[in-house]
From TrEMBL:
Annotated keywords: Repeat, WD repeat
Organism: Oryzias javanicus (Javanese ricefish)
Chain residue ranges for the region called Disordered: 1-35, 153-176
Bias kind Basic and acidic residues: ranges: 153-165
Name under which the protein is recorded: F-box domain-containing protein
Transmembrane segments: none
Annotated Polar residues bias: 1-29
WD repeats: 278-312
Annotated F-box domain residues: 56-103
Span of the signal peptide: none
Pfam families: WD40 (PF00400)
Length: 514
């Protein structure tokens, strides 16, 4: 299916910074300086290959454009690994950047483009291969452009019907009193989690989503970790890069380490605890972060603890704070902590006195943050997202949202944020300026409690009892929705392995079948 530049839907998308302009999808208008060049037959390495008489007959005698069109119907794996074995002349199909861009757009049903199109010198074949694997793994049927467009229009109509009570989205009306009451109010009542969700009752299935009742899929195996936690799991973090080891942080004050490859349902390695203590913390454990062999846990007991996993989970450092820790993010040798008292604290994990700087860019609690070498992006209950330039030591941009952000995830290109009303937001660098895509409705009806993104995948979960898998486009395409009988509180992904925590004190695991 080809993109029609005169189509009204295509024209409306051309103005989006996240969309690849139709002119960029033609060989005549390809930007040689800013993106990988589209190799014509006479310019490609394959043009130097002397074809045998047999190769110049039959299918291989067709023009490059015809061969490229035929190859577009083949799986990416076949074009990358198999066609070059048939004939060296077919290597040009692997090098045709425009064909891979069109394939990526087709996977999104032509209704939108991929944010990472902004990234220069992309590995387009690998990008399309990973995206097709995501669709094959989670999609029940091939994406239909008409159906997706109808669902997008429906989401836009539904988005206009959801309104907040005045002042609820910015954390107004927090009760005065002890700290624990404030924290609980902030995380429960201000999030406006429906009472039926807290009680484990399910809400209606979104009509435009693929709803799955069974956890089994042909490409994935599914199991549930043994129930050693006695309260809701707030955070999940994979360690080691292979999707084999994960840590869970719970409201039962504990952090536990799991080996997913041990036994049929994984096995508990150990629970983390300081010497002389039975629990990891003395309050809810809200967040996790890691760097190398060090695991950091943040808690409502106003502390951050560091654990050395190479030494069997030995407690190595206690960092005290004046308020509960809501979010953690590790970057290089720096650990960032977002706190209830409006601060972002920066710690050097190598120093005896780890606190380096404290930023107070927000007026209310800092709920989420991500960072890279140049920026710190933080979100707060004051409904703002602040982008801070670490080198210039100044605020680059302050973005005001309609509803305050709860979770963030960053793939080195786009920051995805989920807010307290179930909407997604995308922030990205465009021409050295940070831009924001308008709020996106992916079907969640309550607080987004977890989000994990990569270049080719986007996973979200919510207190509306759903977990969703999306293609991370300018208007995310939802591949499937899993419904549960209790709120979903956390999600994490690594090496194709997905972990989801639900309110029934369990952690569900999906991983590729062996």
């Amino acid at each position: 299916m080809e993109v029609n530049p005169n189509d009204s839907e295509t024209e409306s998308l051309q103005n989006s910074p996240l969309c690849l302009q139709p002119g960029n999808l033609s060989r005549q208008n390809a930007d040689i300086e800013d993106s990988p060049s589209v190799l014509a037959a006479e310019d490609s390495p394959s043009a130097d290959v002397v074809a045998s008489p047999a190769e110049t007959a039959g299918l291989l005698s067709l023009p490059l454009e015809a061969l490229s069109h035929i190859a577009s119907y083949l799986p990416a794996h076949t074009v990358i690994h198999e066609l070059p074995k048939v004939s060296p002349l077919l290597k040009v199909l692997f090098e045709d950047t425009t064909a891979w861009q069109l394939r990526a757009q087709r996977l999104c049903a032509h209704q939108t483009c991929i944010p990472v199109l902004l990234k220069k010198m992309m590995d387009w074949p690998s990008f399309c291969l990973e995206m097709e694997q995501l669709v094959d793994t989670w999609g029940e049927k091939p994406l239909n452009s008409v159906g997706v467009m109808q669902s997008v229009h429906k989401e836009e109509q539904e988005a206009g019907q959801r309104e907040n009570p005045e002042g609820a989205e910015n954390g107004a009306g927090l009760p005065e009193g002890d700290l624990e009451a404030n924290v609980r109010r902030c995380h429960l009542e201000d999030l406006e989690v429906p009472n039926n969700a807290l009680l484990g009752e399910n809400e209606q299935t979104m009509p435009h989503q693929v709803s799955k009742g069974s956890p089994e899929t042909p490409a994935l195996e599914h199991f549930v970790l043994p129930s050693y936690h006695i309260a809701q799991v707030n955070s999940i973090l994979f360690l080691g890069g292979e999707g084999a080891i994960c840590a869970t942080a719970s409201r039962d004050w504990n952090v536990k380490l799991w080996d997913l490859n041990r036994g049929p349902n994984g096995a508990l390695l150990y629970s983390l605890a300081s010497e002389g203590e039975t629990d990891s913390h003395r309050g809810w454990v809200s967040c996790l972060a890691s760097k190398g062999s060090l695991l950091a846990s943040g808690s409502f007991d106003c502390s951050v603890k560091l654990w050395d996993l190479q030494a069997g989970g030995t407690h190595t450092c206690l960092i005290k704070n004046e308020a509960p820790i809501f979010s953690l993010f590790s970057q290089s040798n720096v650990l960032l902590a977002g706190t209830f008292d409006k601060k972002v604290n920066m710690y050097d994990l190598r120093a005896a006195a780890p606190l380096i700087k404290t930023f107070t860019h927000h007026k209310k609690a800092v709920t989420c943050m991500v960072a890279d070498d140049n920026h710190i992006i933080s979100g707060s209950i004051d409904r703002t997202v602040v982008i801070y330039d670490r080198r210039a030591e100044k605020i680059l941009k302050r973005i005001v949202l309609k509803h305050y952000p709860m979770r963030m995830s960053y793939d080195d290109c786009v920051v995805w944020a989920g807010d307290c009303k179930g909407f997604l937001h995308a922030f990205y660098m465009n021409a050295d300026q940070w831009e924001k895509e308008t709020q996106l409705n992916v079907g969640h009806t309550s607080v987004i409690t977890g989000i994990h993104c990569s270049q080719t995948s986007l996973y979200t979960c919510s207190s509306d009892c759903t977990f969703k898998v999306h293609i991370p486009s300018a208007s995310p395409v939802t591949l499937c929705t899993w419904k549960y009988t209790s709120p979903v509180s956390a999600v994490c992904a690594e090496a194709g392995v997905i972990a989801v925590a639900t309110g029934d004190v369990s952690v569900k695991i999906w991983r590729p079948r062996k």
